[in-house]
Design a protein that fits this description.
With about 400 residues, this protein is of the alpha/beta class. It is about 40% helix and about 10% strand. The protein has helices at about 35-45, 60-70, 95-100, 120-125, 145-150, 150-155, 190-195, 210-220, 230-250, 255-270, 275-295, 350-360, 375-385, 390-400, and strands at about 15-20, 25-30, 50, 75-80, 90-95, 115-120, 135-140, 160, 170, 180-185, 200. The strands form 4 sheets. A 5-stranded parallel sheet has the order 4-7-10-3-11, sandwiched between helices. Strands 1-2 form a two-stranded antiparallel ribbon. A two-stranded antiparallel ribbon has the order 5-6.
């Protein structure tokens, strides 16, 4: 009999507190309806949950909240890095230890059990025989395509073999894999076959200013261990929005929820010893003083920008470039249709090419009978001086006509 789906009883728009562990700090999680529904489907369909969205939007925290609902204090975690091997999630072989033991008589293990190390997915499958673990595979887009491709057979058959151990078969109990939550920041496109084997949750903040501010403040309130005045929490959200829009307009990576929580954490610690009456004023002062170092992270953006004031109204929204459009990092002057400037002159590079064309013409063709290449020199001089179109027309008439076949 299949275990009862633990996410069916969750209520949307409710908070859950996550205790501090050796790996994670104390936090709070706000359950949304899409998160609950995606977890219900992933658990019932026995498929991994792929959470897509921008960096710092709370994707990894879903695994912590899901682990608490399923009875564990924290999930099993594997953070992917660029040098991650394709089979490291399943197993790895310590070839250095194996080679060292082979040099010492009596220490070598011919069965390889001493040298084969279990990966996180193997550990999660073993723990699933007695409980309901949650496996977090964080930032899978950091690895090459071989890593998700190596999981295709495992996700399809819910088992894998270990050739160094005599093709040992590792199979999930009852054909049910543990709940696997995979996150991606969309830095690299995932294989289509891998995505089809997953339940997908697109976790993105609201696009409008009002919705984004409410989204930030709501997720800031669930961190109940942070003693932040409400007006400071809202002011910090508006500062995040202002710097986020400035970064988007310049084509830089956006700041968001992660930076917002970092700011609230710093404000709570810096004003911990202040009295309740002075706490809001002190937090506001620290916010205006320090926010640029948490929110302005690009070298070409000035960190001495004025902070958002309490009386400042809505910020002009910056239009985000479409997915297929490459954002411009610098604002370059646009050339007029006639060339580089409004006077109709050619841009410097095109003008230089015209001069070369004139000078490379043979002296005996297309020139005046007595002047050699004098008209062409005069045309080149006129172009360098940026004169009117008449000189350009004269230079054009001086160019030789192409030879035509008889």
């Amino acid at each position: 009999m299949s275990p009862r789906n633990p996410f069916v009883g969750l209520q949307a728009d409710t908070a859950i507190e996550l205790a501090e562990t050796d790996r994670f700090a104390a936090a709070g999680h706000w359950w949304s309806r899409p998160e609950i529904d995606a977890l219900i489907l992933a658990h019932a369909a026995r498929r991994p949950l792929l959470v897509r969205g921008e960096a710092g939007s709370g994707k990894s925290q879903i695994a912590r909240a899901a682990a608490k609902v399923m009875g564990d204090t924290e999930p099993l975690c594997e953070v992917i890095h660029p040098r991650f091997e394709a089979l490291d999630l399943l197993y790895s072989v310590d070839v250095v230890e194996r080679l060292a033991d082979a040099q010492i008589p009596g220490r070598f293990d011919p069965t390889n059990e001493k040298y084969v190390k279990r990966g996180r997915l193997w550990e999660a499958i073993d723990q699933a025989r007695e409980g309901q673990p949650v496996l977090l595979i964080d930032e899978i887009d950091k690895a090459d395509a071989e890593v998700p491709n190596a999981l295709l057979d495992v996700l399809g058959n819910r088992s894998f073999t270990v050739p160094p151990l005599g093709h040992l078969q590792v199979r999930a109990e009852g054909g049910r894999l543990p709940l696997i939550i995979i996150t991606t920041n969309e830095e690299r496109e995932l294989p289509a076959a891998f995505v089809r084997r997953c339940v997908v949750l697109n976790l993105n903040p609201p696009g409008d200013d009002t919705g984004f501010l409410a989204w930030l403040c709501q997720r800031g309130r669930v961190h109940r261990h942070l003693d932040i005045a409400e007006e400071v929490r809202e002011l910090a959200a508006r500062q995040v929005l202002a710097d986020r829009q400035a970064a988007m307009a310049a084509g830089y990576p956006r700041v968001g929820l992660a930076e917002y929580i970092d700011l609230l954490t710093a404000l709570d610690e810096l004003t911990e010893a202040d009295s309740r009456d002075r706490r809001a004023a002190e937090q506001t002062g620290w916010l205006q003083r320090l926010s640029a170092y948490a929110l302005v992270k690009n070298a070409e953006q000035p960190q001495d920008r004025p902070p958002v004031s309490r009386r400042q109204r809505a910020i002009t929204p910056a239009r985000e470039p479409s997915r297929g459009q490459r954002p411009a990092r610098r604002h370059r002057p646009r050339r007029s249709p006639a060339g580089a400037g409004g006077d109709g002159s050619r841009p410097p590079r095109a003008r230089h090419r015209c001069i070369l064309l004139v000078r490379l013409c043979p002296p005996g063709r297309g020139s005046a009978p007595d002047g050699g290449d004098r008209p062409r020199r005069r045309a080149a001089h006129d172009r360098r001086a940026g004169t009117h179109h008449g000189s350009q027309a004269a230079a054009t008439r001086a160019l030789p006509a192409p030879d035509r076949p008889a």
